[in-house]
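Q: Could you fold this chain for me?
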Amino acid sequence: METRSSKRRRIAQILENEANSAIDRISDLPDDVLHQILFLVPIKCVAQMSVLSKRWKLLWSTFPDLDFTTLNPFDISSKNLKFSNHEKQKNHSLDSTPMDFITQVLSVRDKHSDIRVLCFRGGLGFSRLNSLFRSAIKHNVRELDIEVTTSVTKDDYFNFPRCVIGSESLRVLKLKSGFRLPPSSIMRDGFQSLHTLSLSLVILYNQPYLSDLFSESSFPLLKNLHLDMCFGLKYLHVGCRGLKDLSLDKCFQLHGLDISCAKLEKMRVTSSFDAYSKKSWVRINAPKLEHLFWQHNAVSDTTVFEQSNFLREAYVGFFAMKGAIGMDKVHSVNSFLSGLSHAGSMVLESQTIEILSNKNFFIPPFRNLKSLELNIGFSKSNVRGLACLFRSSLMLHTLIMKIIKDYKIEKKVLL
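A: Sure. Below is the predicted structure, expressed as structure tokens.
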């Protein structure tokens, strides 16, 4: 099977052969079509082809999709990248680092051409990072996907690029590194055009509250939100009316989560919440929720989960320290499961069943549940939890039981 890299090299060779042939059919294609073709090859090859003719030089200076993730930091040198004499004179020499190459690419860009996508992975300093953001915003970038290298500590981080906050062109923003958010007063009312926001390794040690950031006024058009490893985050409120997809991963210090989104369809929360907190809470109000993935999250002390009539599938897995399951946490798990009463398909991890087995509780009937998968340990202590679930699953058609021993599936039983 042809790999993606070999496919890109083959396409690049075809383009170069056609461009050098006596009958140049490719150069007669519209710019939009050629830009789409060039998007399939590494950006280094696109730069090399800019010397073939004036036509290809124009295509290079207006190329809208700048994906620098294909760069090999050990393979960018003057001997394998060729520029025209004019570009050499303007840049004096081609530097040897990926960031120098990116800087030169942006410097020869047509000032009237917009950037559709800009992606970068690698290490760079604060000043160059800000320069990269300013250049992208200047060219009305629509999608920014930036990952920079830094050690994530309280004293080593990048300040959040404020120039992107007021951008009217930006639709997708993905940042991964030790970025530190500015105060909510600065972020608020800024992202008026943003559709997708993904923040990884965000520093929140001195501002653990995001209760007023993800609101209708701050993100009126936001549809997708992903927060990953937000260090120091303790309380999060998400109230974006148009949000449809929410993902929250590895927010270990979270104490409180409040979700109130009228159009939310998909929610994924994994490996979050402080297992040692004594006052943790969860509130979920998502009347159009269809897909829920709740895995390896510490049990909160209180849960309020409004039922969704549109819920199709749910995956539920709780984590609790041994000896830390009191009646408040048992009630919290019971309340969480009660919010899933309209689910059509459900998967429950073993510790969830163990928690329900502590006491006999009556869960409201799962009226639409047709498929139930249980990952359980082979133990008599699970009988109460199983009985509780079976009593509530009145319409069940398919039951899958995976007997787990030492985190390995020993047996699967289909009923």
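A (continued): The mean pLDDT is 81.
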